[in-house]
Structure formats: structure tokens, C-alpha cells
Specification:
With 289 residues, the protein is an alpha/beta fold.
Length: 289
Amino acid sequence: MRITVRHLWKTYGKTLHALRDVSLDIGTGMFGLLGPNGAGKTTLMKILATLETPSAGQVLVNGTDINTQRAAVRQTLGYLPQFFGVYPQLSGTEFLAYIAALNDIPRKRRRAAVQEALERVGLAEVGDRKVRTYSGGMVRRLGIAQAVIGDPKLLIVDEPTVGLDPEERIRFRNLLANISRNKAIILSTHIVGDISSTCEDLALLSHGQVVFHGDPARLLDQTRGHVWSTACTEDEFSAVAARMQIISCIVQERRRIVRAVGDPVPGLAMWPETPNLEDAYMYMTQEAL
């Protein structure tokens, strides 16, 4: 599976540019799309899912142009939107049977397809329960089940772990990693931990533009020398906050222990730190501004 994005623009009205000249190459495996709210992630996901059309540029899915062959592209993809609606009065099995019918899965294959989807996401034992009794994490897993029921080669997942507790987030990330063995999965999120735990390739979006594309290790390399800590007074903290992006701050009785990214404050004792992906994310988005 190969997704090729070239010089993609999405403009609303005459002046609002949601995407600005985006170019990406995405292959099989987990691909992370990271960025703050409003960066253009959802717009890009909707274009890739054929739910919106670009203002300019080209997207090819295994060589098929989404602008001219949308029906053909839809046969190869599954989509879990950020806001996933269900029918709470149905059971998980009934809901997936309905989705299977919408996907034109032959009637004689539907029962097996539904059962396989439930097993893949760990819901086989609760398939007969009403969806209204599911936890938030179970509903998100049901969302993945409906997205993979037709065995798509491309899976697009938009902000899947928002609102989940840490245990469910970890379970959900592991589920996506297992599914990605023979698929291309595009995971859009603003939660850094979702990317660092699952993706070997990522793109960072800021204000509709790609400010980084590569593996997490290279992103960390670009941030080395820009992560600092200091023990400072209240007045010194104001100087740090005005010049740098604060990552963390521990308030003690007479001072603050601060971790920040950017250029250090002249005259203030600061020591360099080894960057993590959260540091890199904050540094690159601030540099883009």
C-alpha cells in the first residue's frame, strides 16, 4: 500500500487555508499525523477518506486518484472519524451486521465477517450486549471493528484515544499496532504518547503545513540543544516564560524547577536536557509559528 500526497491545498472561502502545499509519502504500517488542534489534521483525514475534495493538489492511493476514482478508493479504505456515532439500542453484533450490509458484504459471509471483526478488537464476548452498555473504550474498539470489517488495506483513524483512560489508551494503541502488520494505518492525534508508542514514521502539521516528516529519532535529533532546565526565582521564571516554551514547572518554596524548549535566557544558569518526543513536538510547533 502506498499513499502519495502532492502539493495539497484546502481553502475555505478566499483566505482560510486549512492545508497549505502538503506533500507526503505513506506506506504500510503505522503512520502518525501529529499536530495541535486546528493544525489541519482532520481536514487532511477527510480528504484521504474521500469525504472532502481538495482545492488543489493530488492524492493517489496505490496509484488511484481520489479526485477521479473516489468509488474505487473507498473500496480499499476504512475510516474511524473523531466523533463516531453508534445505534445504542443495537447489540455490537447487530451494529456490525448493519455496517457489513452497507459495505456490500455478501449475506452468506456477513456472520463470519462480523465475528472476525469482534474477535480482532477483543469484543467477541460482549457482542450480544447492547452498545449503550459499552464503556468509552469499548465503543472506540467497536469503531475500529466497523472500519476493518471489509478488510481494507488503508485504515484512517482520527483522534481515537480522546477521552479514554490510560489503560484503554494503551489497549487501543496495541490493537492498532497489531492490525498494522499488513495495512497502512494513518493515525491522527495531538497526543504525543499515541505516536511515540506505535509509529515508525510521522508527520507534524502546524497551521496547515508539514513542518516535519520522518521517523521519531530524527525528530529528536532536530531538537537536541534546544531543551533546557533551570532552578529560578519568580522574576527569572517570567523571563523564561517570555522567551521559551515551558514544558513543565515544579513550584517549590523559594524557586521553580523549570523545563523549557527554545533558546536559553542570557545570564540565567540553565543546563541542557535530553529531548523526548513531547519536547520535540512543542519545539517544532513553536518554531513553525
